[in-house]
């Protein structure tokens, strides 16, 4: 009996040690390494201009078009997922000069050369944009264009800094399937349009955000297709990419992975997933029109009806709930909407000149 009892005790101790080991392994693999801050010892270098934000963080930026002093229109552009301040998707040299447009793009926190923000929210990003505009002396009002996951800055500015806005354009804005105004049957049908691996990746981002790093770095099963570089683009998008490649032009979406992710995955693309698909502080479909009169400004939402990343059905519902938004649905166009012929001109003219 004593022998059996000793064996049981030993087995329990071994089991406890084994369990502790498993938990330690799991914790180690779900906790990402600390970010490699730009300008820190051993970190990436700082290669471009940066502003200092209200909390001491740095935000890297890039400027396009005419000078701030001569500009008639001033735009803050918010890049998408796994992109950076070099995203010139809506830059059009001739039109910028003709209309006297100035545009500033910036690395969102944790991307490129902008310091990470472990407390990043939709609100904090909007305030970062306001800080950037004030540091660059863009004036009391400016335009905002948010592309894809850059919708965080677009919707966020409408919620938190509407008094600073001259107009807003949302281009193929990523949706959060858990915004409360969406009918459950509509979001479920749209959710299932994604590849299975993206359904899981987005679900983990919402329900188990602490697991996002492990989920997209383990090798047991596929993580997000977008992170893997095989996004669910439409056939029209892939044709556009091939066309650019044949012409020797840059890829429509900047894929400078080394620069984009140089400070680490956790505070760039994974933080983006946690914020974008997590619990928002507000529902965009409950926003009010920030412009009393049409001449005061306008809000535009652009969507391609062949977009394989963002369900068109959900954009139509948003446009229905917010009739003050000018909704532009473009046939035969995918997620790379501003890179199709004539589309960046249409986006800019609708936003700045009111030409639909």
Q: How would you characterize this protein structure?
A:
The structure is a single chain. Helix 3 packs across helix 4 (151-160) and helix 6 packs across helix 10. The longest helix is centred in the first third of the chain and has 29 residues, at 2-30. It is globular and about 55 Å long. It has a single domain, classed as Alpha/Beta hydrolase fold, catalytic domain (Rossmann fold). It is of the alpha/beta class. 37% of the residues lie in helices and 13% in strands.
CATH superfamily: Alpha/Beta hydrolase fold, catalytic domain
The total beta strand count reads 8
Provide the succession of SSEs.
HEEEHEHEHEHHHHHHEHEH
CATH topology: Rossmann fold
Instruction: Name the shape in a single word.
Output: globular
CATH A-level architecture: 3-Layer(aba) Sandwich
Helix content: 25-40%
Number of domains: 1
Low-confidence stretches: 17-24
Give the distance, in angstroms, between the N- and C-terminal Cα atoms: 88 Å
- Number of discrete helical segments: 12
Major β-sheet annotation: 8 strands, mixed
Task: Describe this protein with a few key phrases.
eight-stranded mixed β-sheet, Rossmann fold, 13% strand, alpha/beta, globular, 37% helix, 356 residues
List the helices and strands and how they pair.
Layout: H1 2-30, E1 50-52, E2 58-65, E3 73-78, H2 93-99, E4 101-106, H3 122-135, E5 142-147, H4 151-160, E6 165-171, H5 184-191, H6 196-207, H7 212-215, H8 235-246, H9 257-260, H10 266-277, E7 299-304, H11 312-321, E8 325-330, H12 343-353
Parallel strand pairs: 3-4, 3-5, 5-6, 6-7, 7-8
Antiparallel strand pairs: 1-2, 2-4
Helix pairs in contact: 3-4, 6-10
């Amino acid at each position: 009996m004593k022998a059996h009892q000793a064996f049981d005790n030993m087995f329990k101790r071994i089991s406890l040690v084994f369990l502790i080991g498993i938990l330690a392994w799991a914790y180690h693999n779900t906790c990402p390494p600390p970010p490699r801050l730009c300008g820190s010892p051993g970190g990436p270098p700082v290669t471009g201009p940066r502003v200092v934000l209200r909390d001491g963080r740095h935000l890297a930026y890039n400027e396009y078009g005419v000078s701030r002093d001569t500009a008639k229109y001033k735009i803050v552009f918010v890049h998408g997922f796994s992109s950076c301040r070099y995203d010139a998707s809506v830059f059009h040299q001739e039109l910028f000069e003709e209309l006297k447009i100035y545009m500033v793009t910036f690395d969102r926190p944790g991307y490129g050369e902008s310091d990470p923000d472990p407390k990043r929210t939709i609100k904090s990003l909007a305030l970062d944009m306001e800080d950037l505009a004030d540091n660059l002396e863009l004036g009391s009002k400016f335009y905002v264009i948010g592309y894809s996951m850059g919708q965080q800055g677009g919707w966020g500015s409408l919620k938190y800094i509407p008094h600073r806005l001259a107009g807003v354009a949302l281009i193929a804005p990523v949706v959060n399937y858990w915004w409360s105004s969406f009918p459950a049957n509509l979001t479920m049908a749209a959710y299932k349009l994604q590849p299975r691996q993206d359904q899981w990746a987005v679900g983990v981002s919402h329900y188990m955000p602490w697991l996002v790093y492990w989920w997209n770095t383990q090798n047991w099963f596929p993580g997000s297709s977008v992170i893997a570089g095989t996004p669910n683009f439409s056939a029209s998008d892939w044709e556009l990419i091939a066309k650019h490649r044949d012409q020797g032009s840059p890829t429509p979406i900047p894929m400078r992975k080394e620069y984009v992710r140089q400070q680490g995955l956790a505070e760039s693309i994974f933080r983006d997933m946690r914020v974008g698909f997590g619990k928002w502080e507000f529902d965009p479909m409950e926003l009010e029109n920030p412009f009393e009169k049409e001449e005061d400004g306008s809000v535009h939402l652009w969507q391609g009806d062949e977009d394989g990343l963002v369900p068109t059905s959900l954009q139509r519902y948003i446009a229905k709930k917010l009739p003050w938004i000018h909704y532009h649905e473009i046939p035969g166009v995918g997620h790379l909407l501003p890179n199709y012929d004539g589309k960046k001109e249409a986006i800019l003219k609708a936003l700045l000149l009111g030409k639909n």
